[in-house]
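Human
Can I borrow your eye for a moment on a structure tokenisation matter? Give me a protein, with the fold worked out from its sequence. Write it directly below this note and I will take it from there.

Assistant
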Amino acid sequence: MGFKINHEDASNGFELIAQGDYEVTVINYETKKANSGNNCITVDYEIRSDVPQNHQGQKILYDNFTITDNAMWRLQSIAKAAGFPHGMEFKSYKEWADTLLNKNLVITVGHREWNGNKYPEVKGFKESQIEAPNTKFEITEDDIPF
């Protein structure tokens, strides 16, 4: 079966994520060295599709957490928003990032400009007000057809 190219149906990709609060899931991280030479953890988020909100499924990438005394407040803020208990200890920043993976939280998105383009930028963190989707289900004897 053939089809015809229609430029009016072409998309330039996702639209810029509007400023505001979004329920997200932490989907990825990478540890690296920042340009400053400090250790850095770069975190990626996906706007949750199981929550009624704009931009569902879009990703917000490259949120940098630089490992310095002056920047620790960001690590503490996202950890609190992700529900880490007060006093929880980690042996390494990688262990912290592993624990953050797949956590749900709310991020506040702003915009930053770079090379004449606007990009979403994470400005803050809050605790999610929505339960994670229940992916567990039980099968009872009544569900089995034999």
Summary: The CA atoms of residues 32 and 40 lie 5 Å apart.
